[in-house]
Design a protein that fits this description.
Layout: H1 31-43, H2 48-55
Length: 64
């Protein structure tokens, strides 16, 4: 039986390392700063999608 360490703040998968906010697939150097910027953008009134675009976590819509 494995103990859950919580959910990833980005994708909601189970976190493998106790005390981390990120799963192994989502973690990269600098993600904590990007997450802080994402939260700031939400507080400024941007939608979640707009905030994700601005921190590089979402692809822009295809024009066509």
């Amino acid at each position: 039986m494995s103990a859950s360490h919580g959910s990833c703040y980005r994708c909601r998968k189970e976190v493998q390392v106790f005390g981390s906010r990120w799963c192994a697939d989502c973690y990269y150097p600098g993600i904590d700063g990007d997450y802080d910027r994402y939260r700031d953008l939400l507080e400024e009134g941007y939608t979640r999608y707009q905030a994700k675009l601005m921190v590089g976590w979402a692809d822009p819509p295809e024009e066509g």
